[in-house]
């Protein structure tokens, strides 16, 4: 008799991968007899060596801790067609989506291969992996979305198809005095919509439209939130107000689901867990005295902005832990060259700057952290709420 399996297909960004791994762990906690298979697609060209190293370390640690319960399947590398590159005028999100579209045949082949030895009960896909849903339907595999943001944004995306039908033109071309109403959302102006949705002729807009329609065809939508956190949005979705004339998929709220206390990215060294430098530094700081700054996997500032943040931190006189990513147009591994002259030396007694990554859940739950400057990524929001850490919000991209 074939063993039961669930296949998870995240987009190749570390935050989305972590979300899928935590979903897999949750499934295993209630169904330990099942096996979880996670598909790894070609990373976008914008992902530099540091981000790739963090992802590889995370995968290695999860594999070591989960044994055979969670297995990773790296899909064959796909090549972008001419015109798609980091240096082209094509938006980064369009490049990411094109890679996922090209991966559809690889996903199908891998799913069929897994099915030879397992009874695949479901395929769970990321919102950005929407091209896999028609393929799953062809194979008669139940397909669910793992929506990595809140219910309020889900309401917007479910309603996007209705907006497309009633609005005469692109959001960017609508009268600026016009207001748009979406169930459970305050009225907003057309230009308040995310940049990737402004032009209905844009390829990225078309992909989001496909996702909006495919959401209604899914066996269900798993969302990392909970009714008490977003009660109005929850009611609007389940009562069908976001899909007038359409089908509302079953909604499964599983939040707050956040990375385990040890999020799997500190690997054993000589049989012992290495304690990240930032945690040892926090151990020496007074209670709730440190402001933590971290802006997600795509939170990359230009060099000029990094310098302004540094100046502000220095003038504040407060203790800080700051995660810095190199600007795309100025890749630099030496923090001394990225930040103002002498900044690191002048603030070394009360501040720590870290390149690229820290174990965020552990940092937020540390007693020395008293505040969080965040880009408002949904994982970060939930981790901060769960840890009880006040947030200073600095939304940067996407739905934030």
Automatic annotation (TrEMBL):
CDD domains: GT1_Gtf-like. InterPro entries: UDP-glycosyltransf_plant, UDP_glucos_trans, UDP_glycos_trans_CS. The keyword Transferase applies. This is Glycosyltransferase. SUPFAM superfamilies: UDP-Glycosyltransferase/glycogen phosphorylase (SSF53756). GO terms for molecular function: UDP-glucosyltransferase activity. Its EC number is 2.4.1.-. Belongs to the UDP-glycosyltransferase family. It comes from the Eukaryota. Keywords: Glycosyltransferase, Transferase. The keyword Glycosyltransferase applies. PANTHER family: GLYCOSYLTRANSFERASE.
């Amino acid at each position: 008799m074939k063993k039961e399996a669930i296949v998870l297909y995240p987009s190749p960004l570390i935050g989305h991968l972590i979300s899928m791994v935590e979903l897999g762990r949750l499934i295993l906690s209630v169904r330990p007899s099942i096996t979880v298979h996670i598909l790894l697609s070609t990373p976008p060209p914008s992902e530099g060596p540091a981000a790739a190293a963090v992802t590889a370390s995370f995968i290695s640690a999860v594999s070591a801790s989960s044994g055979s319960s969670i297995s990773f399947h790296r899909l064959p590398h796909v090549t972008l067609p001419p015109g798609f590159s980091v240096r082209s005028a094509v938006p980064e999100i369009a490049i990411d989506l094109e890679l996922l579209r090209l991966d559809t045949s690889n996903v199908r082949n891998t799913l069929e291969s897994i099915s030879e030895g397992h009874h695949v009960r479901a395929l769970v896909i990321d919102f950005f992996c929407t091209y896999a849903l028609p393929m799953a339907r062809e194979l008669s595999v139940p397909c669910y979305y793992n929506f990595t943001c809140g219910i309020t944004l889900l309401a917007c995306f479910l309603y996007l198809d209705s907006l497309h039908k009633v609005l005469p033109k692109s959001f960017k071309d609508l009268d600026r005095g016009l207001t748009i109403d979406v169930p459970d959302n305050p009225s907003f102006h057309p230009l308040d919509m995310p940049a990737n949705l402004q032009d209905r002729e844009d390829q990225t807009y078309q992909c989001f439209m496909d996702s909006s329609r495919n959401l209604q065809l899914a066996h269900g939508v798993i969302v990392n939130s909970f009714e008490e956190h977003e009660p109005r949005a929850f009611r609007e979705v389940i009562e069908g107000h976001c899909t007038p004339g359409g089908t509302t998929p079953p909604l499964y709220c599983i939040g707050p689901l956040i990375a385990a206390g040890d999020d799997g990215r500190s690997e054993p060294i000589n049989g012992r867990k290495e304690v990240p430098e930032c945690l040892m530094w926090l151990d020496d700081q007074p209670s709730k005295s440190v402001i933590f700054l971290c802006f997600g996997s795509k939170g990359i500032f230009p060099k000029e902005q990094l310098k302004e943040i540094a100046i502000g931190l220095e003038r504040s006189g407060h203790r800080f832990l700051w995660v810095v990513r190199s600007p795309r147009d100025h890749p630099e591994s030496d923090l001394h060259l990225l930040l103002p002259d002498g900044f690191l030396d002048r603030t070394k007694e009360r501040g720590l700057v870290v390149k690229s990554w820290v174990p965020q859940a552990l940092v937020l739950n540390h007693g020395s952290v008293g505040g969080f400057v965040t880009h408002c990524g949904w994982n970060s929001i939930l981790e901060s709420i769960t840890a009880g850490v006040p947030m200073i919000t600095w939304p940067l991209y996407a739905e934030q």
